[in-house]
User: Fold Calcineurin-like phosphoesterase domain-containing protein from Achromobacter animicus.
Amino acid sequence: MYDIIGDIHGEDLKLEGLLRCLGYVPAGKGYKAPQGRQAIFLGDLVDRGAGQRRVLEIVRAMMDDGQALCVMGNHEFNAIGYAVEDPHHPGEFLRPNRGDSATCRKNRKQHGAFIDQIGEGSPEHAAWVAWFRQLPPCMDLGGIRVAHACWDDRAVKALTEAGWVAGKSLDDAMLVATHQKGSDLEQARKLLTSGMELALPDGRYIEDKEGHRHHHVRLANWRDWAGALHEVALVPAGQEEQIRGLALPEGFKRTPITGAPVFIGHHWFKGQPKIESGKLACLDWSAAAGGPLVAYRWDGEDTLSNENLVWERNNAATAFKP
Assistant:
């Protein structure tokens, strides 16, 4: 049985509080799971929070001890690219951060808390980047499927056939291939770690919580019942005008999710945690922005239920209450 935990972003106190609430007990640097259970982390362990080293210590110790599994989030993928030189642009990195462009400044700011806490270029930095490479882009565990941002069968197949699978470290060749703009592997990687996005028309952009402008909008492509763009466009409050009058993208999937339930994070939901449907739960409820760190206690059910959600906010754990 699994306890699936959403995006932590360096919130070590919330993580430890949630683990204790779930019945995990301290063991070395990590925690030991209750009998017959295992934790699954959905990625985005780093960036933003003040306790990033402690979060990484906990998760790694639990994985080493067989108490947990973890998939790669876009922030772990970005952390690797931030530290690996771009072979096509000597002096710059796969995730640009050396120049004075708007992109470089944004990337430095986004990753700044991690760099400040770990030390850029330090042996510890290199060790964590090497560890991030070992995280798989997704996992199909039979009873459940997990990915950071969305589950897409074709994307899973593309990365699997290319050799990026659980148990195999992300090597430089695959890293470069999954950064190559417009390539099939880049698109597959982006779907799993960053989700589906729609390019906005010229003049429109989404402004995020940090003031950065994005010319794409995230789509909740798992909402097969949707008939209008505003039902699937994940935009911050106050940005709704940017999608007004736009149609759903051509070819938007409306096939209901079948088979094993899917768990994702990534999307910074707000409010009281709840599942998206009986087949999909997003467990990112903005823990690094004052929201709760959320877990789902999966006990083998084919249909998910709000009653299995547990979350931690300010050292006060809560179970779902309708």
